């Protein structure tokens, strides 16, 4: 992996990957830092991964809210 990457792009990519695999999602919920390290294949200091983890959590929460709203819309 290239050591330089677009953080926003990487958040999108990892969020999609995590959301599409229940095992990865479970792992991410238990230990997000280690899960991200394993997904990107690089062992980085936790401080460098925390913004990436925060972005992914935000993305996953937004996707969950969107799914919830879609479910509510179907009721009406």
Can you characterise this structure?
- This protein has 76 residues and is an all-alpha fold.
- Helix content is 82%, strand content 0%.
- Helix 1 crosses helix 4 and helix 3 (32-40) packs across helix 4.
- The chain is globular.
Query: What is the count of β-strands?
Result: 0
The first-to-last residue Cα distance is 46 Å
Give the overall shape, derived from the CA principal axes.
globular
Largest sheet: none
Order of helices and strands: HHHH
Helical stretch tally: 4
Taken as a percent bin, the fraction of beta residues is under 5%
User: What class would the helix/strand composition place it in?
Assistant: mainly alpha
Low-confidence stretches: none
* Integer average pLDDT: 81
Radius of gyration: 14 Å
Q: Helix content range of the residues, please?
A: over 70%
Q: What attributes does this structure have?
A:
76 residues; mainly alpha; 82% helix; globular
What are the SSEs and their pairings?
Blueprint: H1 7-20, H2 22-30, H3 32-40, H4 46-75
Summarize the entry for a quick read.
By secondary structure, the chain is mostly helical. It is built from four helices and no strands.
């Amino acid at each position: 992996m290239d050591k330089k990457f677009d953080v926003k792009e990487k958040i999108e990519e990892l969020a999609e990957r995590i959301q599409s695999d229940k095992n990865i999602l479970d792992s991410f919920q238990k230990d997000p830092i280690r899960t991200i390290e394993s997904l990107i294949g690089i062992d980085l200091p936790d401080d460098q991964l925390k913004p990436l983890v925060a972005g992914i959590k935000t993305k996953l929460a937004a996707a969950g809210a969107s799914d919830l709203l879609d479910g509510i819309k179907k009721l009406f």
